[in-house]
Structures are given as structure tokens and as C-alpha cells.
Design a protein that fits this description.
Structural class: alpha+beta
Number of domains: 2
Helix content: 10-25%
CATH superfamily of the largest domain: Probable inorganic polyphosphate/atp-NAD kinase, domain 1
Strand order of the largest sheet: 8-7-18-15-10-11
Number of helices: 7
Order of helices and strands: EHEHEHEHEHEEEEEEEHEEEEEEEH
Number of strands: 19
CATH topology of the largest domain: Rossmann fold
Strand content: 35-45%
CATH class of the largest domain: Alpha Beta
Shape: globular
Largest sheet: 6 strands, antiparallel
Length: about 300
């Protein structure tokens, strides 16, 4: 992978984790740093509320996604994923630079001491841009579309707390794969392989691999196992629902949740456009895994 320079940057979007008061001094300093270099900082509306009153450009999250040349995210992986989903929903190609407030993240891997050096690398074309596959998930009923959403990590079908185990018929394309009786099912991207998929016993898949992972959650048979399929596949899931007893929900990236009813069908496929992540650091993917998962230390 060779460094890919950003398109000329004039407007930098800034988004902080909700209610992250520790970010306030950094938000003020960032504004001054960008302005001194002839760039316009544009703050997400809730992020601007973390700062003292003053004249500054602000936009809500979705308009921000398409109005700036790059987005700087201060927070954790969840904050970055939420922004990535917004960018995908407005069909933009805006790249994201993630800065972590806490331990090293899988996606927000830049630390606070690395913030300005990383920004300089990105603005000067010395950073890597990495494209990550996203999922498009659609629920239909009788052929009519009920919901359509985008996800970076995963699409999860699961029972509610009061429900018994659920019964799902799983297809890849038109071919029947298996019937899963479990607490749920995860359909993940390689990026999402280190999220819920990993907790459910699924494999870690390097982001450069063009694949999707199907992982049962607590299957009620030892013969149900995770499977890795081509990224060009369409996964079709038909819940076998007893309307009187089953309560099933469909969740995208742990953020958007929809109820599933008898007769619904769920389609998960590659989204039309990948998300673009700015990676100015020299850490390899495996170095991040070693740091995050403490490989070899326990």
C-alpha cells in the first residue's frame, strides 16, 4: 500500500464523542491550529456545544459528512463508526482520521500525542488512505422494503432478553446454506471481525481480505460454525418466527435497531462505496492487534 495524497483540503470537519468534556481544550487548540494554516474548522453541532460560546462554523452530523474535505474524530471506535455510517448514508467519499481518547483503538489508533504530527502527514500527502468495505442491509416484507441501512462493522439478528432461541434460514445468493438455531447471527465485515464477531468466537479477518463473515451467536448445536464467504456475496436470512413467542431485532453497528416480524426477509450485501480511513501512523494491522489483544502476554 502506497501513500495516497488527499484531495486539496480547505475544510476540516471535527467531531468529538458525545459529552466528552475532556476534549474541550483540544477542540479549541485544533481550531486555532487549522485556522493558522489557512484551513476552516467546521464543528459538528453537539461537538461545538462542548466549547465556550463563540463564532464558529457548525453543521449537524449528516450535512457535515458531505460538506468537508476530511473529518477528524476525537473519541473511540464507536464514535468513528457512527460518523462512517453517516458518510455512507449521504454517499460521500469523505475520509476520516480517528484520534483515540483512551486506550489504542482498532480504528481510532492515533493517540493524542500523535495528533498534530498525524494531521500534518495527512494534509501533506504522507498518510496512507485505507478503504474499508461496508455493508448495505435491507429488510423486506412481501417484497416491499421496510428498512435500508449501512454498517461498517456488522449486521446482527438477535433475540430480545425475553425471547427463546431463534430459528433462522440462511442463504448465500440463491443457495441454501444452513438453518441456525441460536441466540442470533452476526454478518460482519473484516473490519467488524474484531468486534461482536470476535466475542462470539468468529475469526479475525485482515481488512485487506475481500470477505464477509457469518457467525452464529451461542448456537444450540455443535455443528454450527462461523463461515467466511466472498465479499461480493449477498446473504439472505429468513427468520422462522412464532409471532406469539419470538421477539427478534436487527441491529446495525450496535447503533440502529429495527424489529423483525413474521414474513420479513433480511438481505446483507456489500455497500456501493467503501469508507476511507486516514492512517498516518506506521503501525501495521498486526501491531494494533498485538497491542489491543495483548497477544503473547497472557
Amino acid at each position: 500500500m502506497s501513500p495516497i495524497p488527499l484531495s486539496p483540503v480547505t475544510r476540516v470537519g471535527i467531531l468529538a464523542k458525545s459529552h466528552l468534556r475532556a476534549a474541550t481544550p483540544h477542540l479549541l487548540e485544533l481550531g486555532e491550529w487549522l485556522t493558522a494554516r489557512g484551513l476552516q474548522p467546521v464543528y459538528e453541532t453537539a461537538t461545538a456545544a462542548l466549547m465556550p460560546a463563540g463564532e464558529r462554523a457548525t453543521l449537524d452530523k449528516k450535512p457535515l459528512a458531505s460538506a468537508v474535505d476530511m473529518v477528524l474524530v476525537l473519541g473511540g471506535d464507536g464514535t468513528l463508526i457512527g460518523m462512517a455510517d453517516c458518510i455512507a448514508e449521504v454517499d460521500a467519499a469523505t475520509p476520516i482520521l480517528g484520534v483515540n481518547f483512551g486506550s489504542l483503538g482498532f480504528l481510532t489508533e492515533v493517540t493524542l500525542p500523535e495528533l498534530y504530527r498525524s494531521l500534518e502527514h495527512a494534509l501533506n500527502g504522507r498518510a496512507y488512505i485505507e478503504e474499508r468495505m461496508m455493508l448495505r442491509a435491507t429488510t423486506t416484507s412481501g417484497g416491499d422494503v421496510r428498512t435500508k441501512s449501512i454498517a461498517l462493522n456488522d449486521a446482527v439478528i438477535t433475540k430480545t432478553a425475553r425471547s427463546r432461541m431463534i430459528d433462522l434460514s440462511v442463504y448465500v445468493g440463491s443457495e441454501f446454506v444452513t438453518r441456525v438455531r441460536a441466540d442470533g447471527l452476526i454478518i460482519a465485515t473484516p473490519t467488524g471481525s474484531t468486534a461482536y464477531n470476535l466475542s462470539a468466537g468468529g475469526p479475525i479477518v485482515q481488512p485487506a481480505v475481500d470477505a464477509m463473515i457469518i457467525t452464529p451467536i451461542a448456537p444450540h448445536t455443535l455443528t454450527n460454525r462461523p463461515i467466511v464467504i466472498p465479499g461480493s456475496s449477498t446473504v439472505r436470512v429468513q427468520p422462522n418466527i412464532d409471532a406469539a413467542r419470538d421477539e427478534i431485532v436487527f441491529t446495525l453497528d450496535g447503533q440502529a435497531t429495527f424489529p423483525i416480524h413474521a414474513g420479513d426477509e433480511i438481505l446483507v450485501e456489500r455497500a456501493p462505496r467503501p469508507i476511507r480511513l486516514i492512517r498516518p501512523s506506521t503501525r501495521s494491522y498486526f501491531e494494533v492487534l498485538r497491542t489491543k489483544l495483548k497477544w503473547g502476554e497472557r
